[in-house]
């Protein structure tokens, strides 16, 4: 901690950009000016995520003016998670900031985030105070998503935490080693561990244009995170299997009762239906057990 307090770190800032030609001329100078106040050794990595506007041309022109600016041009639109990963692969700093290119992340927080790093925190992430810019349905679904994602999870993903954060070089190296192809970065940030600090913030208005990450994009990202990072869906399938197996046994008992006391008998029907229900239930239970092989070990070590 003492070494960090006295050190002058090399700072990298990764900024994914998708159709942000109108905002980059204003955001890039602001961010570079804020970074320059923190360290003389800075780089700003703009990752053009297959933009369909003049983002690449604008960023190229800015590189000629600002030597600290680095442009990574992706071959097509891969999505923000992939763009962040590409930027982290190219970052060379001792400290790496992650920021959006729309100007909504306040640069005034950068010094406070770096102060957290000097205190010994390896990750300093920001948490939105409110989601007033979203509809009531989207806010409700967001709450449900985090509830399901963190249900009985060994690693909790903080609610309302975004990509605006500081990462120590050790954290960046750990993220580079993660082999996931369908990446859910918020989950990976939590998975790699390290000492973390949360800061509240309120997003600023966009400098230009409108957000392209609406309800559909949030739903797609949430689905990726839920199925790629959480065992909850498989656990729910296991619970469904238990209920289905119990229903099959109860139905079998009811058929025996009908045959013995009511004289109702349909040859072969009961055996087929009850057998199919029981086998389907056992299969779903097996899937649920396979979803989390460490669940029993985790429960016995508490």
Summarize the structure.
The protein is an alpha/beta fold and 302 residues long. Helix 6 packs parallel to helix 9 (215-229) and helix 10 runs antiparallel to helix 11 (269-291). The chain is 51% helix and 14% strand.
Question: Can you tell me about this structure?
Answer:
It is a single chain. The chain is α/β, with parallel strands linked by helices. Helix content is 51%, strand content 14%. It contains twelve helices and seven strands. The chain has a seven-stranded mixed β-sheet with strand order 3-2-1-4-6-5-7, with helices on both faces. Strand 1, helix 2 (24-36) and strand 2 form a beta-alpha-beta unit. Helix 6 (136-149) runs parallel beside helix 9 and helix 10 (232-262) runs antiparallel to helix 11 (269-291). The protein is elongated and about 90 Å long. The two termini are 31 Å apart.
How is this fold's topology laid out?
Layout: H1 2-6, E1 11-17, H2 24-36, E2 42-48, H3 55-65, E3 69-73, H4 80-90, E4 95-98, H5 110-118, E5 123-128, H6 136-149, E6 161-168, H7 169-176, H8 185-191, E7 196-201, H9 215-229, H10 232-262, H11 269-291, H12 295-300
Parallel strand pairs: 1-2, 1-4, 2-3, 5-7
Antiparallel strand pairs: 4-6, 5-6
């Amino acid at each position: 901690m003492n070494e960090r307090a006295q050190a002058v770190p090399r700072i990298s800032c990764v900024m994914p950009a998708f159709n942000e030609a109108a905002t980059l001329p204003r955001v890039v100078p602001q961010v570079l000016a804020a970074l320059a106040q923190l360290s003389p050794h800075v780089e700003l990595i703009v990752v053009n995520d297959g933009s369909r506007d003049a983002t690449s041309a604008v960023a190229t022109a800015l590189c000629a003016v600002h030597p600290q600016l680095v442009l990574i041009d992706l071959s097509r639109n891969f999505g923000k998670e992939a763009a962040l990963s590409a930027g982290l692969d190219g970052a060379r700093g001792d400290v790496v900031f992650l920021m959006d290119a729309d100007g909504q992340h306040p640069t005034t927080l950068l010094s406070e985030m770096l102060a957290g790093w000097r205190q010994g925190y390896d990750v300093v992430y920001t948490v939105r105070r409110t989601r007033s810019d979203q509809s009531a349905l989207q806010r409700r679904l967001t709450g449900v998503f985090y509830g399901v994602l963190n249900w009985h999870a060994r690693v909790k993903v903080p609610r309302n935490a975004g990509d605006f954060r500081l990462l120590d070089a050790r954290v960046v190296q750990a993220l580079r080693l993660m082999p996931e192809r369908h990446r859910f970065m918020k989950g990976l940030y939590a998975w790699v561990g390290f000492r973390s600090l949360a800061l509240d913030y309120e997003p600023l208005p966009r400098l230009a244009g409108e957000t392209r990450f609406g309800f559909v994009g949030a739903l797609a990202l949430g689905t990726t995170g839920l199925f790629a990072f959480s065992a909850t869906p498989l656990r729910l399938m296991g619970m469904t299997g238990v209920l289905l197996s119990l229903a099959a046994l109860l139905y079998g008992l009811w058929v025996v009762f009908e045959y013995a006391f009511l004289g109702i008998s349909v040859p072969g029907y009961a055996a087929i239906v009850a057998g199919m229900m029981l086998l389907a239930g056992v299969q779903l239970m097996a899937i649920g057990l396979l979803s989390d092989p460490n669940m029993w070990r985790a429960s016995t070590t508490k």
